[in-house]
Amino acid sequence: MIPGPMIPVTLLTGFLGAGKTTLLNALLKHPGLRDTAVLVNEFGEIGLDHLLVERLDEETVLLNAGCLCCTVRGDLVRALTDLAARIAAGQPVARVVIETTGLADPAPILHTLMTDPAIARRFVLDGVVTLVDAVNGLATLDSQPEAVKQAAVADRIVLSKTDLAPDTTALLARLRALNPAAVPIPAAGATPEAVLAAGPFDPAARGEDVVRWLAAEAHAHRHDHHHDANRHSDRIHAFCLTWEQPVAWQGMATFLEMLTATRGASLLRVKGLLDVAGEVLPLVLHGVQHVWHPPVRLAAWPAGTPRRSALVFVLRDLDRAVVEQGLAAFMAAA
């Protein structure tokens, strides 16, 4: 059987809260990306981002929650192999976008996409698009090695939240030092033409560090199939709180404001899909450290999703009990 054309795969990465899902939704509105399959990976007990990808259909797949380590890399291979079979059966797919968790080290993902024989038969890595938060970017690059790797491997760097950070001079200088080949573009200019079709991905063009990371990944993958388990410090953990009954918005909002003011640096990511008392439509909540975006109402509840509230926290140096007990107290008082 003659194989079909190779399907380009774009890796969409960036640290927690940089705006990956927002960018993905904007890109998917373009008619040329109608036949795009989306794979979403998240860090934590319960994934939400796949519910917030606006074009939800059978081509949107949630990979197992967690880091893209050995278990999820196997899941990635299976997802792409299954997709290849559906393409062969006539399903139109022109491109695949993989949205990673913000805590993902891109090296194991790139290694899998470039070396797994099952993937290589039908897919080709077309490039890496990395989102960088203009507000928290410098601090994140200083404190999170995953963010450094995400920026260094990028073919395209997209700078988000520039409206909240009028002076990006220092951040741009840092990004140029990490990756001179990728000229950052503002999120407003991140059209499919500007950010996609960047490949094929060439590690050598990204510099010696990228080549070294991928070589180390190949060695580790051969000799220790559980080496990813320790990628993230015990200081960072994720959990999800759920409520079956509508939640009291005033109590939740007041507690989150207080938590942000006192422990904002520990809030690596907060995101929620909420059933608010007195509201018909779901409310989407996004926060990163000290920055909160205005809540957004969706046009409808995501298909097949039970009507309940889910709030995901990714925290650093902050116990779950502090958040859970404080939130319960404020909501009960409201």
The unreliable regions are 43-72, 223-232
Q: What is the CATH superfamily label of the largest domain?
A: P-loop containing nucleotide triphosphate hydrolases
What is the fold-level CATH name, i.e. the topology of the largest domain? Answer: Rossmann fold
Distance between the termini: 65 Å
What is the C-alpha radius of gyration, as a whole number of Å?
Answer: 20 Å
Order of helices and strands: EHEHEHEHHEHHEHEHHHEHEEEEEH
Helix share bin: 25-40%
| CATH architectural label of the largest domain | 3-Layer(aba) Sandwich
**Global morphology:** globular
Give a short overview.
The chain is an alpha/beta fold.
Structure description:
The protein is an alpha/beta fold and 334 residues long. It is 37% helix and 22% strand. The chain folds into two domains: 224 residues, Rossmann fold (3-Layer(aba) Sandwich), CATH 3.40.50.300; 98 residues, CobW-like, C-terminal domain (Hypothetical Protein Yjia, Chain: A,domain 2, 2-Layer Sandwich), CATH 3.30.1220.10. The chain contains 13 helices and 13 strands. The strands form two sheets. A seven-stranded parallel sheet has the order 3-2-4-1-5-6-7, with helices on both faces. Strands 8, 9, 10, 11, 12 and 13 form a six-stranded antiparallel sheet that branches. The longest helix has 19 residues.
Question: Descriptors for this entry?
Answer:
13 helices, Rossmann fold, 6-stranded antiparallel sheet, globular, Hypothetical Protein Yjia, Chain: A,domain 2, hydrolase activity, hydrolase, 7-stranded parallel sheet, 2 domains, nucleotide-binding, nucleotide binding, chaperone, 22% strand
